[in-house]
Specification:
Elements (H helix, E strand, L loop, with lengths): L6 H15 L4 H20 L9 H13 L4 H20 L26 H9 L6 H16 L3 H5 L6 E2 L4 E5 L5 E5 L2 H14 L23 H15 L7 H14 L4 H8 L6 H7 L2 H11 L1 H8 L2
Antiparallel strand pairs: 1-2, 2-3
Helix pairs in contact: 1-2, 2-4, 5-6, 5-9, 6-8, 6-10, 13-14
Subcellular location: Cytoplasm
GO biological process, one term: cell division
GO molecular function: DNA binding; tyrosine-based site-specific recombinase activity
Amino acid sequence: MREIDNIGKIKEQFIAYLTFEKGLSRNSVEAYTDDTEKLIRYLEEDGKKLSDITEPDLHEFLSTLHDLGISPRSQARIISGIRAFFHFLKIEHYIPHNPAELLELPKIGQHLPDTLSVKEIDAMEQATDPDTYEGVRNKAIIETLYSCGLRVSELVGLQISNFFINEEFIVVKGKGNKQRMVPISRSAIDSILAYMEKRNSLVIKKGSEDILFLNRRGAMMSRVMIFYIIKDLCSKCGIDKRISPHTLRHSFATHLLEGGANLRAIQQMLGHESISTTEIYMHIDRSHLRREILEHHPRNNKHKESY
């Protein structure tokens, strides 16, 4: 494979490929190269190299575009540009495989991706093995993603010191290191406490002592690992949907909306606004957020019914 050591040169070659081999118009070439720039900047901020990119990395990038409110039509154009770019990298022997080959274009007019039903989420949790460390951990991961609407990056960085059992809140570090408080259901707390019993038997790597979810070697988990855990559980359950960790976040918001929760409260819990730690304590009515979760999230309704 050729080394990817000069991004500027590769961009020039890509432009030539689009212009002369694909025969695209000037506007299309500019759009494709601009979309490629977006991806490259995103990867650089994440500390990743083009040669190491996987399909889950691209799905996460696309999920970020959705979070930013990019329309399905614009998402489709960006995906086309990414496909073309990685196809170019493969035929020019910069990468051995094309991670964008299976990316699907969103349907124009389809504003939300697939969501999971409560029954499907229950099935995923039931597919975990309660007798193994990974099984108990994975159940807690699914429950936390769904009950709190976290981004996958927020989940892997979740700290034990930011988990307040008695108050039933977690402090989440979101984009730009902004923090927010999110109510956590009793069901999720129970799953995390069961996981913590298994976690206590691990030899924990230095620097990961305060990280909640760890791999079996005692180190912080990667986002890609979470992607594959969810894919594997869906496969075991026979769930035939385009699923990623972000699907559970969308399911969280969708189920709250369908249950009649206040849109403003959902936006705050998802972290769509830049709210610093001080602003959270001073301006957000935490009892109101807890009430929205307790009244409208399926997990809490299920918990109440169990009494």
